Amino acid sequence: MLYSHVTLLMLRVIDIYSKQSVQQSTTRMLVAEVPGDIQIGALFPVHRQIQGSESCGEIWESYGIQRIEASFLALKYLNKKLPFKLGIEIHDTCWSERVTINSLIRMLKENVATNKCCTTPGCEKKNNAVISAVLGPGKSSTALSAQNLLQVFKIPQIGYSSTSIELSDKERFAYFTRVVPSDVWQARAILEVLQHFNWTYVAVVYSAGNYGEKGYEELLKMTNENVCIAHSEKVKPLAPEEEFRRALKQIINLKIVPKAIVCFCEGEVAQAMLAAQKYLISKDKNIEKFQWIGSDGWADRKDVVVGLEDEAAGSFTIRIHSPRMEAFEKHYFNLNPENNSVNPWFRDFWQQKFECQFVIPKEEIGLKKQCTGNESLKIGYEQDPKLSQVSNAIRVLGEALEKMYKDRCGLDKNFTECTAMHTINGTLLFKYILNVTFVDEFQQVITFDQNGDAPAWYDILNYVGKNGGYKLAGSFRQFPSGNYSLKFHKKRIIFYNNTYDVPISVCSQPCGRGLKRTPTTACCWLCEPCGANEIVNQTTCVECPSAYWPDEERLKCVPLPINYLQWHSPGVLAALIFAILGILSTIFTIITFVNHNSTPVVKSTTRELSYIILCGIIACYGVTFAILAKPTFISCFISRTLPPIAFSAVYAALLTKTNRIARILAGSKKRILTKKPRFLSTFSQVVITWILVGIQGIIVAVGVIKEMPTANYDENFLPSKVVLVCTSSTPAFLSPFFWNLFLIILCTLYAIKTRNLPENFNEAKFIGFTMYCTLVVWCAFIVLHFGAVNRALIMSFSFSLSASIALIILFAPKVYIIIFQPEKNVRASYTTTKLIRCHFGNTQGNVENKNRSISKGRSSTQSLSYSCPTRTASLHIAANQSSIISSSGQTTKSDVSTQTEGNIFHSSSSLLSSQPFRFKRTLSVSHGKKKSIGEDVIQLIDSCRKYQEDKLHSTEINAPKNLLLEVEEDDDDTEDEHIAGMIKNTLQNQMRTVLSTVNPTTLGSLVLTDENDSHSGGLRNPAAETDPDDSHFEEFLRSTGLHSFNLTSSFGYKRLYGDLTPPYSITSNSSTSESGSNFLSSTSGQLIELTDKELAHLSVRQLNQRLQGYDQEVVAKLKQKRRTLKNRGYALNCRVRRLQSQRQLEEINHKLRHEVTSLKCTIQYLQSRLQYYEPITTAQFNDSRMATFQLCNNSSTTNDMNNNNRSNVQPQQQIGRYVTSNRVSFDNFMMRES
User: Fold this and answer.
1) Most buried residue, 34, 61, 102, 731, by CB count within 10 Å?
2) Could you tell me which of 64, 725, 6 has the C-alpha nearest to residue 349?
């Protein structure tokens, strides 16, 4: 309903408007019509537009008459193959928008309004065919107006020369399509021409209206940094001449005048601009001509340049590709007024062209020329370039209608029978039009995109002057893929100055290489240099990314070659050779140590820790290959993680070793060893070492997780050079090494602490020297790491140098001794224990003799400590008798010996244990006078108390081991007489009593006698006692499963209580020693009679003398057997001595613990009495003391019984009488005090 009302309203308007307009001109009311079954309309500019008005002028041959005849010719060829007859109705537009609308209304009124409104009976139509589609008009602005009217009636419109960009908008112009491209592509073609000739500074003149304004907007949109529009002017097509002169003068008055002007305008505007240029040059000779570039509105029109040939010479114009139609010329030249009655304007055109008349009034006969009809149309003939587009447009409509006819009617029915085609659906027909595709006779592809536009194909024309006219210079073509190209066919092109030299139209000269444009005014610039690593992007400098560098033209960034350390460079070769030699040396050292694993020199280095150090050194050398390899994630990961862990393994082992030495030496300085040192075993040392290494592993793992190592470019060489390195921040790289530095510093401090060792204790000195050198190397490495550029090479040398220092200083001397001085690789030079493995060989004997000589000159109450780096605290006094003052003031001589862990002080320390009581420094101990107890006594008593507390709460069943005899002898240990002497001295030292360090005058009242011998007032001489029975010890040996031995009297218990010099001579049992072997001499053939006992007692020199002249094999076997016998005897000697010592110590400890408990009870009672100063009588004191003593004895009975079960041997009477006498004397002393 809405559509019907709108249609009726439009028809009413059309009817009223038509009645007012058709009366204006009879000529304009003419219509050229070819009837057919289906009718199409056509709008051609048959007449020119009078400049400055909307009126029609003279007949236009090229745009009017030729296009009408071209449509007739195309229709003639088309109807030969169509199943129906296609008719056409042509109206004149006079190139005017108003006349176009008038003609279109008339066309719709006659074909739509009249026919549609004839509904009464008897009403007949003139022509049953209605307008199904409209061709034209040629002008873009008039085509827009026509489409606004036609789409109301849903009549498709096809353009043959309308190129306006707006017509591509299908939302506004839904029924418009064209066989020519949009002005978007024309703007692209003009821009390509400007860039081709490097005309970067141009002005633009465009005509007012849809064609010029939209074209300029598109051109402005496409301009980039290569083309700059300095100035633009919009002019009206019908404007006076002064307006065009003003617009051109605006361009001339610019500060920098462009030489090229783009005219995106219609032909009339282009002609007016050329005329204005001619006028201005005539007024001012200093004004030069311009280089014009015209759009397709100018194209190849001769009327534009008529009379202005010099001003237009050298200009370029754009023309839609239009091949010359030879068939049309043949048809056209055969036309005359007699045979062309279809074209109502042809007779007038003939008279106008040839300036004659067919009918001359009588009064004008002789004044005007008579037309004969034989004149030739070839005279002044110029074919219209749009004829091929007109022909293709009609063919498109015919192809679409034919396709539609076949789909709706088929091939069997004629048009009369096919009623479906009697009424054309415009929407359906438009869809068929968009789907038409064909190739015309000129090999031009006709197809339509989604906007109804045909592919772009332009001819670039060069106007060379009046004589040459327009010459084809090149072409611009769009391809189906969307790409385009500009090609110039003519090599010699004429420019505005009538030369072949390309004129320059720039504001500023192009900047040179590496210079950017800095804009000053519109399209003008200054040239400024860019950085060395920057490319020039016209107006900006763009820095190349990392690892890229500008090319020679400074237009693009190219990748730089990647550099990294090559293994063939001298520095890298030196580092690799250094590392390889270090690895080989370390492997050689390991092999040497493994082959001599049981020799003293290897044992003295703590073998387990030494192997850890050597493995760490190999890793330090091996990391050089990862550091100097091509940086990758794997090599960077190894370079980051392996060095800290490898160095920590080296320095953690060294720290553990030096700490062990320092702790043992610190314990040896004490007056008494109250507790066995902890974590001194080999297993403990290895565990501690790996714990320290594990801490380093945790530090490294945290650093790697926080910052993953990567291969990247070294910033020190960027941007001109790319060096691939393993990158990591300085804190992430150095933080793990601070732990190693901490270990080094601790090792250095321990080395300094143990620097004053005996001469032959070289291990600590070697470690110290290693640490000093390592500190120097690491300090230098840290400095170079921050200042050097090639860090990888410095790192590899530093790591290898640090490893070499440890290898050379710590292991080279030992390897030298093993290989070149095997005579020094004996136990005499490298005596070791499990607590400490150090050198104390020949030099030690000198120190010992020296100390002993000093001790002889001292008094018997002084003590002397041997300078032996062991953990045993030895308090030495002279072997003569010491004087001890008893309670009665008498002096008793007695042998006093020192004691180590597990000796007599097990019970002595009970005097002050587990109670708040402590000796006072001013306690009166003799004749009621106060005497000060020495600091050494207080210290010794406190140590004993602490040790006794630990032992009382211990759950161990076995007796404590003697630290000196704790070493388990290896089966392959070879000991000699010097070792036996060393063990003898050790046994002598361990039986000293702690009280030997106390001044006898200080403790005189504390030294009491046994209850049975209290009248003697002192200690009995232990020498007077009989020797203890050895049967108990022999029975003990048999219970342990050991072989029995012949123990000489010189090593009996007599020596233990006498001079304490155990000159044992322990030999093998006769049952085994007597079983000797007989050997046959190779020379005499007699047997050598030697028993095992005789062989063991022979020295090397004696054996060599007896075996002179015998076979070498026999000699070797005898020597080997002698070494085996001696080793067996030495091992059994050590076991016997250890068991004897433990047995004696346990007996003494048991007795002293029982007696000290009683003394403690007495002291507690006296302490409680003295605290309150209570007076007491002798009888009261005795009764209270006995009650307290009985209570304490009962409380300790259980512990004593348990301790008695630990030993089957009775305690020594000598020690028992001594302790008991102490209690009695102390009671007397406390009585006197009370």
Assistant:
1) 102
2) 64
State the amino acid at position 771 in one-letter form: M
CATH number for the domain running over 596-824: 1.20.1070
| Total Cβ atoms within 10 A of residue 856 | 10
Cβ within 8 Å of residue 1007, ≥6 positions away: 884, 885, 886, 887, 1000, 1018, 1019, 1218, 1221, 1222, 1225
| Residue 958: count of CB within 10 angstroms of its CB | 8
- Spatial separation of the C-alpha atoms in residues 973 and 971, rounded to whole Å: 6
**Alpha carbons 717 and 724: distance in angstroms, whole number:** 10
Secondary structure element (H or E) that encloses residue 699, with its range: helix 682-706
- Angle 240-244-249 from CA coordinates, rounded to 5°: 140
Contacts of 726 (CB under 8 A, 6+ apart): 627, 631, 635, 636, 639, 640, 709, 710, 711, 712, 792
| 965: its two tokens | 């005899």
Helical segments of 22-113, H only? 66-79, 97-108
User: For the packed helices 730-753 and 682-706, what is the interaxial angle rounded to 10 degrees?
Assistant: 160
CA dihedral for 72, 77, 78, 79, sign (positive or negative): positive
Q: Which of 105-109, 506-510, 1013-1017 has the lowest mean pLDDT?
A: 1013-1017
Q: Which one of 3.60.15.10, 3.40.50.2300, 3.40.50.720, 3.50.50.60 gives the CATH number of domain 2-181+384-446?
A: 3.40.50.2300
Determine whether 1139 is exposed, middle or buried from the number of CB atoms within 10 Å of its CB (0-12, 13-18, 19+): middle
Of 105, 847, 78, which Cα lies nearest the Cα of 436?
Answer: 78
Is the pLDDT confidence value at 694 over 90? yes
Strands 470-478 and 484-488: antiparallel
- pLDDT score of 235: 93
Which one-letter amino acid corresponds to residue 1180?
Answer: Q
My answer on whether omega of the bond before 1175 falls inside 30° of 0, hence cis, is no
Q: Is the pLDDT of residue 833 over 70?
A: no
Angle at 222 between CA 221 and CA 228, to 5 degrees: 90
Lowest mean pLDDT of 318-327, 421-430, 963-972, 1195-1204, name the range: 963-972
C-alpha angle with apex 806: 804 to 807, nearest 5 degrees?
A: 60
Helices (H), 629-670: 633-668
The whole-number pLDDT of residue 938 equals 52
* Least confident stretch, 105-109, 470-474, 764-768: 764-768
Q: 1184 falls in which pLDDT band (50, 70, 90)?
A: low
What residue type is assigned to position 157 of the chain?
A: Q
Question: Quick one: angle between helices 140-150 and 210-222, nearest 10?
Answer: 110
pLDDT at 64 over 90: yes
Q: Same CATH topology for 2-181+384-446 and 596-824?
A: no
Residue type, 627: I
User: Which among 664, 657, 666, 665 has a CA at the least distance from the CA of 684?
Assistant: 657
| Cα pseudo-dihedral 1187, 1193, 1195, 1201, rounded to 10 | -160
Judge: domain 183-323+457-488, CATH 3.40.50.2300: yes
